[in-house]
Amino acid sequence: MSLEFAQKTKRIPVYPVAAGYDLGADVAMLASNETPFTPLEPVVEAAKHALLGSNRYPDPAYMPLRQALCDRYRIPVERIALGAGSCDLILSAGDALLEPGAEVIYGWPAFSVYPHLAAASGARAIEVPLNGDAEHDLDAIAAEITVATRLVLICNPNNPTSTALPLEAITAFLEKVPAQVCVILDEAYVEFSLTVGDPYASLPLLDKYPNLVILRTFSKVYGLAALRVGYGLCGSDSFRVAVDQVRQPFYLTAAAQSAAVEALKYQDEVERRVVATVAARTAVTEALRNRGLWVAESDANFLWVRVADDGDDVPIVTGLRERGVVVRGGTALGGPGHVRVTLGTPVENQQFLDALAELLP
């Protein structure tokens, strides 16, 4: 007799992890939207120092990091939610807000964790197709909101399509959302966005819309993906209280918190990384378009490229992997016929272009 699991385990999709971690050091790992820049030495040292106290649990309120984020963004500490990556906060939001009979709405394709929320809670998921430019159709999303809607997720810039909407469009959308509906504005890639403007641009929305939560992460531009630190800037403290209720205590390690606090001190380095990434984004996009490929207008540290008009991107993904380049196939992300490629080092970017040229002569 085998173990009997809850029905939700049959509904929850398997997260589409990237292959290729076993291929060796010379492989261009361009599948997970990581930055090619390693953490600064003071950030590493801060994490190491925190390990000296590993016999003690971390402060369960994580006040050093909350205060550092408060100082940076001028958001009260009680309105700052933390998590083991922003993904932790997304899943906790589903746990806190959703249940059978409730609805969650998001554009599709978008972040591949979003479908987990309805599957785990028994709520109804409403997936609204993106427009022809691979952007969120905010009018269509607003039209789907009903009295049963509890949560709306807007990924801006959107993962996997890399596109972003201006804040004027986001503001107009928020005006249509009832006050009891939580809106999560997932800005994991906002530092790279020229459309949004800068990481401060969306913050004034929080004072006007108490139902808004803006998600950010240290996994991307700060280069701390392996340490798993995310945060939510909230329009009110009710979201933070609710997600903390449904999670285990001590969800963030002391080393991760210390590294994040230290990383916030080096905004000049963040700007240098953004400039380098945007330059690479422009160059790789131009190279792909010069070969006749459709590439979405990217506001992120990755590109969304159409590689197969018949919707079968698997041969291209496999062929790239055989040539030492790991990207994410669009079929697994809700966009068949595309690949999502992270911008890496100049050598890795050229390796991708050369391998793709062999596959699409």
Broad CATH class of the largest domain = Alpha Beta
**Overall geometry:** globular
Q: How many extended strands?
A: 12
What is the radius of gyration computed over CA atoms, rounded to a whole number of angstroms?
20 Å
Q: CATH superfamily assignment of the largest domain?
A: Type I PLP-dependent aspartate aminotransferase-like (Major domain)
Any idea what the CATH architecture of the largest domain is?
3-Layer(aba) Sandwich
Secondary structure category: alpha/beta
Helix content: 25-40%
In whole angstroms, how far apart are the ends?
Answer: 54 Å
Quick synopsis:
By secondary structure, this protein is α/β, with parallel strands linked by helices. The chain has helices at residues 8-11, 41-51, 63-73, 86-97, 114-121, 138-143, 167-174, 204-208, 238-245, 254-263, 267-290, 314-322, 330-333, 346-359; strands spanning 28-29, 80-83, 103-108, 124-129, 149-155, 182-186, 212-217, 230-234, 302-306, 325-326, 328-329, 338-342. It contains 14 helices and 12 strands.
